[in-house]
Specification:
Elements: E1 2-4, E2 14-20, E3 27-28, E4 33-38, E5 43-47, E6 50-57, E7 64-66, E8 70-79, E9 110-112, E10 117-119, H1 121-130, E11 145-146, H2 148-155, E12 168-169, E13 172-173, H3 183-198, E14 201-209, H4 211-226, H5 234-245, E15 253-256, E16 261-264, E17 270-272, E18 274-275, E19 280-281, E20 284-285, H6 293-308, E21 322-326, E22 345-349, E23 353-361, E24 364-380, H7 386-401
Parallel strand pairs: 10-11, 17-21, 21-22
Antiparallel strand pairs: 1-8, 2-4, 2-7, 3-6, 4-5, 6-8, 9-10, 12-13, 14-24, 15-16, 17-20, 18-19, 22-24, 23-24
Length: 409
Amino acid sequence: MQFKLPELGEGVHEGEMVKWLVKKDDAVKFDQPICEIMTDKATVEIPSPIQGKVSELHVKEGQVVHVGQLMVSFNDATSGATQAPAGASAAGPAVPSKASAPVAQAAVVESHIGNRVLAAPSTRRLAREVGVNLLSVPATGEHGRVMRSDVEAFAKGGSPVAAKAPARSNGAAVREERVPFKGLRKKIAEKMRQSMDHATHFTYVEECDASALVALRVQAKDLGAKQGVKVTYLPFVMKAMVAALKEFPILNSSLDEEKGELVYKHYYNIGLSVQTEDGLTAPVVKDVDQKSVLEIAREIQNLVDRARAKKLTLEDLTGGSITLTNAGSIGGLFATPVINYPEVAILGFNKIFRKPVVKKVNGAEQIVIADWTYFSISLDHRVVDGAVGAEFMKLFIQYIENPALMLLA
């Protein structure tokens, strides 16, 4: 019996074989995940509608596979069509829907140059929970990354499985290593190239007094903690974006080049760039204008937690109208982010830092210490003029510096 790649979602006709979860001669049960397929939108696990023994895998990892293409053959096989949920069939087996398809994303990577520890936040959190100093843990991950298994083994007093040493020739270490360019990294490359080939990028940067925002966030953080919600600056930034976008709707649009139409979005779905071990992804916070700061904070927390647990869905990754990228936790004054095509704008939120500035206090100029930051926005110059982008940023900054004004927006 043969199994062909089923439909993966609306408008999705192909995907990349990221990983086989079974091998030849494995016994497979009904609905057992047999592989991971990456599409333009997400990576999904494909369950088997067949029970039997794998006789042959027809697709290699890293290969592009099309809907209807033969993937795997089984011996001693039984179709699971009669046991599948309503809507599934032997000819077209059910695949995880937009609401259930897990995304192969991992936790955000943090690299601390000073102590040379490379580990995901989930690994760092585990280390804190079990009282382990990451500096003391032998790393077995690629490029010296400390893995969860390394922390677990160290906490138990054992030793992690040693990583394979580089191949040696005549006693000398190999100076280059080649690894397949595939999976999410390859999809990111394709999306970035598409954006740069189509959108005409320009970036505008503006500084901002974030003192009032910092003070408001302190109050909101305490309130959120009582409700079990972690409140960051991001919900406030999103609300300020919406307030400014209502005055400059051109930034909340996309360009349909095929039809020659500019599509104005009358909704505010903000994608949030998240750096993962596999690369960059942008889950979307839907209907930001209709939600409170605490509701947005709770949704962001949920998206981040599910990203780290590899449980994002196709629905989480679609429908965005504009994107927010936050590099502030890493550092840097500002950046020139690449537009999440076919959107026309991406806003960069950078680190908040303390600095002396000149302010008017009781009518007189004085040097005071303020919380300061820079915002950068990359725009598609085919759609958004420079003056429009600058005026948008001026209004956006006004809302950030005076958060109470958002109540009037």
